[in-house]
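Box 3.1 A note on notation
Throughout this textbook, protein chains are presented in two layers. The first layer is the amino acid sequence; the second is a token string describing backbone geometry. Keep the layers aligned when reading.
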Amino acid sequence: MASSPVSRPARTALALATFAGCMVGVAYAAVPLYELFCRVTGFGGTTQVADTAPVEALDQTIKVRFDANVAAGLDWDLDPVDTEIEVQIGAITETLYQAASLTGEDSWGTATFNVSPPQAGAYFNKMHCFCFELQHLAPGAVADMGVVFFVDPAILDDPSAARIDTITLSYTMFPADAPAGAELAANTTNPVGPQPVADTQN
């Protein structure tokens, strides 16, 4: 006996479901591709990551300002130790942010970042950053979190960026889940974050 043909509404529903599934797959694939694009081009103020610095620094300087925010759900303070410094273009520079836990429990955070103006992102290179790793604070702990960076001299060769005299580096710290096993170890160690410089826990 021949099977009955699939009705037109059923075919339409099947086609829509297939299309929706394909779009979801494309969306998931697009996220890492978009992140890679941002890191390579500095699009949207995304900074770069570098293993080595320029051979020598230039005499020309540029101002770098520092900003910090904490997202809802994370009971921390986060502030730059220096709000603005002047650096030589091409010189390796280190700055600190200070994080303080305002809660009576162990807590974890992870930071997102960007620079402004956006066209400076392609030339702002980080060699080390607390934003690369999950951060942990014990109850009431205070910790210094470092950033090591340089501004690529190539910024002077870019007509859209050469006249920039100030770059602002901004961080937002978000709550994060504790890694597996970390909650048990947190009572005696600080395995995934910076060592606290002060601890007000009684």
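The chain has a mean pLDDT of 79. The CA atoms of residues 38 and 46 lie 6 Å apart.
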